[in-house]
Amino acid sequence: MFAYCSDPSQLDGLTWLSCYLTTGKHFDFYWSFVTVLTLLAVTAPAALAFGFAGAMAARAPFLPLRVIGKTYTAMVRGIPDIIFFLFFVIALDQGIEWIMHQVRCPDWSEPIRQGLEFRVCPEAKVPHGSAPQSVHRIYGAGLAVFTFALVFGAFVANVLSGAMAAVPRAQLETGESYGMSQGQVFRRILVPQMWVYALPGLSNLWMILLKATPLLFLLGVQDVVYWARELGGAKTSAFEYPHPDWRLWYFLVLLVFYLAMTKVSEIFLTRLQRRLSHGQATADGEAQRRAAA
Amino acid sequence: MKTMLIATALMALTAGAGLSQTVRMGTEGAYPPYNFINDAGEVDGFERELGDKLCEMTEMTCEWVTTDWDSIIPNLQSGNYDTIIAGMSITDERMQVIDFTQDYFPATESAYMALNDGVDITSAVIAAQTGTIQASHVAEGGATLLEFATPDETVAAVRNGEADAVFADKDYLAPIAAESGGQLVMLDADVQLGGGIGMGLRKSDTELKAKFDDAITAMKADGSLNEMITKWFGADAVTF
């Protein structure tokens, strides 16, 4: 990065440190924070969408839909996360390739499973074998986000259906007496009012999701934990910047990062709760009304 | 998901035309001097240089991929990459699930490293990396095996006293002991393990295996492989 970094073995003190902290590898580490935040920013809305769909399905008047919704929440909530992160991702990946194989290579005669090998025709590889590594990374991250969203979506679904059930029946009846259809009651009355009941549960899930991001590392995403471990490990002179085991310092950085993230989230969620309670028929909403009066 | 599929489909359509075959090389990136991630964040080491050379000779394009040692064989089998080039010794046990090219590195000496040379390796707690020939060797003996996912952690375990000694390839441990300023010593109890290091391939990839075998034979014949070994492992290294 800096001109004086060309021969690190001649440097010491702060100059050495300034060069050390600006190596290509360290920039990969800094970028991995952005990666984690991006994946969070994608996963959270996706999980919310999964949860909303699940909650809607679970209270649908149409029986098969209700069964699907309830099975989804019950199954995903009941299966240990680690199984999802280790088994499901592989199954999903192979499933996609299996479908591509059926579509693109209908004339392929060899079996797909040969012993422990999973072998589809080269055209069916997702991503394609000749695609650059970045595409493979994005695809891997995509699978990870999908899995996270599926798992957390089941919990969100449960929270949301609880919140939907908590909206006072009288509110819905009022809507019906104005001649609104079931759909209108759902959109105009139930959904806007349920968030205040859902928020405590959702904020819990957000915090858990935030703290579960190091699991990305299990899914092969080169996240902050991967780089902290890689950079912190003792380095011999095979490397340009040899140093002893510094993992402690790198993990301290992660500690600060995650504490900062949870603190910011807490502040934000408290504000959101106050806003959502405004004008609601809840104890919080009532307290706000009295304070204003 | 949908856009992802469309994007990859487009890639596949545009990429296939007239390019040389791409081989994805799977390595661990945590085992200097065999393979490691250098300060620029790229795969480096003996195997990087060798792999690039082999790809050049066979006129294929190589793409380097790193993965955890734990899952390096399953990932090969499910097709996430096409070769394992990660200091993996050829053993009968591994031959049952994957194929190997001929060895590109002679059978290696494994060595013990400890805080002092008074450690009794027949009864001590020995750290080794999971799924290595060294781990199986310790498990078969009388010592207590302590397994870790990465080579770095096995050394750290000795430094902090969790294990009495670490057992790994001598080429990996020797530089660490030499640069520890006397904190770590090599024990005088080297063991020859495995049938040399080869490149791991899926059993069904016979064509690829033949190509790499030919290239390795050529490199052995003209002495360039020995040169490369001496460059990375020092003048005392065992060569062909």
UniProtKB/TrEMBL annotation, chain A:
GO cellular component: plasma membrane
Membrane spanning residue stretches: 30-53, 74-92, 138-160, 248-269
Membrane-topology descriptor: Multi-pass membrane protein
Localization per record: Cell membrane
Domain called ABC transmembrane type-1: residue spans: 33-269
Keyword Transport: yes
Main location: membrane
Keywords: Membrane, Transmembrane, Transmembrane helix, Transport
SUPFAM superfamilies assigned to the protein according to its UniProt record, in alphabetical order: MetI-like
Chain segments annotated as coiled-coil in the UniProt record: none
UniProt cross-references to Pfam families, sorted A to Z: BPD_transp_1 (PF00528)
Keyword presence, Magnesium: no
Biological process terms in GO annotation: transmembrane transport
The family this protein is said to belong to: Belongs to the binding-protein-dependent transport system permease family.
Stated name of the protein: ABC transporter permease subunit
Organism: Szabonella alba
UniProtKB/TrEMBL annotation, chain B:
InterPro entries reported for this sequence: Solute-binding_3/MltF_N (IPR001638)
Signal peptide as annotated in the record: 1-17
Domain Solute-binding protein family 3/N-terminal: 22-236
Keywords: Signal
Phylogenetic classification of the source organism: Bacteria, Pseudomonadati, Pseudomonadota, Alphaproteobacteria, Rhodobacterales
Keyword Signal tagged: yes
Keyword Acyltransferase: no
Protein name: Transporter substrate-binding domain-containing protein
